Amino acid sequence: MVKLCGHCGEQRAVLRRPKTFEQLCRECFYTALEAEVHETITAARLFRPGERVAVAASGGKDSTVLAHMLTTLNRRHGYGLDLFLLSIDEGISGYRDDSLETVKRNEAQYQIPLHVYSYKDLYGWTMDEIVSQIGTRSNCTFCGVFRRQALDRGAALVGADKIATGHNADDVAETVLLNIIRGDVPRLGRCANIITGEDSPLPRVKPFKYTYEKEIVMYAYFKRLDYFSTECIYAPFAARGFAREFVKDLEAARPRAIVDLIRSAEQFRVPGRSSSSNSSSGAKAVVLPQAGSCERCGYISSQPVCKACMLLEGLNKGLPRLGVTRTRKTHKAPAVGGPAAATAAQLAAAPAAAVDPAAADLVAPQAAGGVSTAAAPRPEPGMQRCRISSCLQAQTGAASVQQCGFCTSPQQPAVCCGSGACGGSALGSLEAGGAPEADPPAADHSAALAGPGSEGSFAYLQNKGAIASHPSARHAAQ
Amino acid sequence: MVKVRLEFSGGLDLLFGNQKAVEADIPQQSGHQLTVAEAMAWARDNLLTDRPELFMKGSSVRPGVLVLLNDTDWELCGELDALVADGDRVTFISTLHGG
Ligand SMILES: [Zn+2]
Ligand SMILES: [Zn+2]
Ligand SMILES: [Zn+2]
């Protein structure tokens, strides 16, 4: 029952392409996939001749295949790119050590230079040291915030014009779904963009935006590319969020679903996406915080002090959790009287009570009075805030609505923890189908929250930021 | 018994006691040839050391785990019903790990 390649008709077919159901032999598969990526690169004009491009290299499958593919195409089609590998060493012994070895081999295999920057060099702390201070609960928040900046800083230090990342079609489809579920309109408007980086100093490009994960892995397998696939020891299996699982289920039922999700997101008309903010739908444009720069480190930031510097200050003062999350007992404060009993005054007061006044200048430097809600803009007319004080997401709907969709939904812990950013406990119980979390949903929700007003304006945006910053979901920010 | 080489990669090896390949003797029902479905269930029941839900979902692999029979996509060979004979190689690759 040997099937022949549907393209050349000579060799034995080795795989069925998920997007097209074509059955191809190895060589025809390589040719087809490489041609597709080349087409993506040229159609979207991802690069210009002479550009210096940092290939973000983790040693994992996507970045390994990306490095191979970009060096191949650069040579074949004369892109004229000055390519190099850029790796971040988080300082996680036994994990990053091994993946860095992989990247070093890639340097030799693809003959492009490798630059490595460590958290220790850039921030003075390794992840191992951070975890020894904070435990494993919020470490993904630190790691994600630090990693994003570290890539930008590393790229700037070696004079890159842009950063190429290995985000694939499955990643993008997952991000689209997550942003829909979170109601994160600003990100929904740009998450399917092939060039991102509005909130970074350098543009980021995704040559694999339309490339299926299955094909990337098959390509690596058949070409015997050397990649690394061990889990981060601090967030093992965190990548298996519910959205990931759902995307894979969709793909199993109908492989085109992945590219359809991406294509549909490209068609979204999101208020505030373009410069003409008066949309005919009548919806108010979403106003994002103005980009400025951090007064301490100069990194692009919507707040006087960027998130990394805030986290660092907490670490250096020996109060490492301040920039990340409030303490557990304060989560329970807002439950007093139940949501229905909450008055507007209580609503305004609850977050202030939840923040240790001594910490207020760390968490919300611009809120002089220590009342963190002062930092958040008022909801638009007709909108109100979710009454879970750890959430406070602005929401539309009738005045009788007390809680946002996240906090109301019984699935909420799973939604909050889809990326593992909450420490994975809710994810674990979802996966195992075990007992529900002992803690009220709001507690887990807030575990993923950055401090009020620490960056961005809406509490819910910070929450998304924390989730998006998880290394396994790093694309969510894009 | 059918002699099969089972391979685990892309992080699945972590679920199988860090073994990347196992030379297995898999019992078959008399009068029937071994199928990939049976080989998979046998691996789960006899070799898996951790988190079975990351390997299988229901009676098939968890979506996102690729299966190859003698280096050919199992989607070309009949998937669960594909027949496995002496000396064959079944490869399981997780796509769900790391980027
Ligand atoms: Zn062919
Ligand atoms: Zn800063
Ligand atoms: Zn809420």
Explained architecture:
Chain A has 478 residues and is of the alpha/beta class. Chain A folds into 2 domains: 45-267, Rossmann fold (3-Layer(aba) Sandwich); 292-323 and 337-477, no CATH class. Chain A is 43% helix and 8% strand. Chain A has helices spanning 26-43, 61-77, 96-110, 119-123, 127-134, 139-157, 169-182, 185-190, 213-222, 242-253, 257-267, 307-316, 328-331, 338-341, 344-354, 357-363, 405-408, 412-416, 425-432, 441-447, 459-468, and strands at 15-16, 23-24, 52-56, 82-89, 114-118, 162-164, 195-196, 204-205, 292-293, 300-301, 383-385, 394-396. In chain A, helix 2 crosses helix 9 (213-222). Chain A is globular. Chain B has 99 residues and is mainly beta. Chain B has a single domain, classed as Ubiquitin-like (UB roll). Chain B is built from 1 helix and 9 strands. In chain B, a hairpin with a 2-residue loop joins strand 4 and strand 5 (60-61). Chain B is globular and about 35 Å long. The model of chain B has no long low-confidence stretch (mean pLDDT 91). The interface between A and B is large, with 44 and 27 residues. One zinc ion binds next to helix 12 of chain A. The site of one zinc ion has 8 residues of chain A, from helix 1. Chain B: InterPro entries: Beta-grasp_dom_sf, Mopterin_synth/thiamin_S_b, Urm1. Chain B: Its main location: cytoplasm.
User: What's the CATH H-level superfamily name of chain B?
Assistant: Beta-grasp domain
Distance between the termini of chain B: 38 Å
Number of structural units classed as domains of chain B: 1
Order of helices and strands of chain B: EEEHEEEEEE
Shape-level CATH architecture of the largest domain in chain A:
3-Layer(aba) Sandwich
Task: Report the CATH C-level class of chain B.
Answer: Alpha Beta
Q: What CATH architecture label of chain B applies?
A: Roll
Describe the strand arrangement of the main beta sheet of chain B, using strand numbers: 2-1-9-6-7
Biggest sheet character of chain A: 6 strands, mixed
Uncertain segments of chain A are: 274-286, 325-382, 385-478
Fourth CATH level, the homologous superfamily of the largest domain in chain A: HUPs
Biggest sheet: strand arrangement of chain A: 5-4-3-6-8-7
| Rg estimate of chain A, integer Å | 23 Å
Pathway (chain B): tRNA modification; 5-methoxycarbonylmethyl-2-thiouridine-tRNA biosynthesis
GO biological process, one term (chain B): protein urmylation
Main location (chain B): cytoplasm
GO cellular component, one term (chain B): cytosol
